[in-house]
Amino acid sequence: MSRAVMLRQFPPQNPPLTRGYDKKEMETQTKLWTEQEARRLLELEADAIFGLDHRQDHPVGTFTPHGVNNRNVYAAHLWSPQAQFTVRQADIPVTVDEESSRQNYIPGEIPLLLRRLCSLLNLPLSCIQGGPSYVVPLDILMDSTQQPRTALPILTSSDDSQVRQAKELALPDNWEADEWAELLGGKLGPWAMAVDGREPVSICFSARRTPKAAEAGIWTHTRHRGKGLAPAIVAAWARLEARGKEAIFYSTSASNTASQSVALKLNLKLLGWIWKLEKPAGEETQ
């Protein structure tokens, strides 16, 4: 299995929510950022995940969809209680009308504009996938004592001796040899991994990154899940990747309760939800 397959953050179907979001949580989330701050965070994450076309001019406060370079996504809508941010391929007719722009943010509810676009393109609703997005807070980024303790040693890309040690480890089954070499060689950004003997059993790295932001990519071996490894390596990776960046993000799918529990254990700050209208299976651009 390639790293690209492993990084698919949204499952092929969009199941019902597995945890609820109450009114108190929504109120707390609303107080975290101003409208301008939330919109900036949504823009940074959209750029990291989808690759914005920066040749276009989009005045602040407009709802004009931004162009993206990711050809496997027709359109995406990132929203929070304070702001929203829409992206689309240049040839996709996304129109954010007044009704869509005023739709109230509800976690787990597909945005109206993506429903309409899905119908316009004659695509099944299952092509729309979504999940929560979080921001890694400063206390994790600035204070190494906030990192959860683990029973297994953690290697990071910031230590040359640990990089050499990682190069002696067995190749994980879900990584291609060339991609693994790129990771350990530093071409994919910083990383952190928990090790059991000669085997990497939990890895966090930069799934997507720009000079201003980065998105976490994480994998834990099935027999090592539930042991607290994921929160520890996410925290270790985030501190390395945060240098010089405006924000560090962690997002997952609606059904991935294990990944959501990592966010809860680290007290990551819920930004909002990311919804995307993808190409049907088998039509993706490699």
Automatic annotation (TrEMBL):
InterPro entries linked: Acyl_CoA_acyltransferase, GNAT_dom
GO molecular function, one term: acyltransferase activity, transferring groups other than amino-acyl groups
The name this protein goes by in its record: Uncharacterized protein
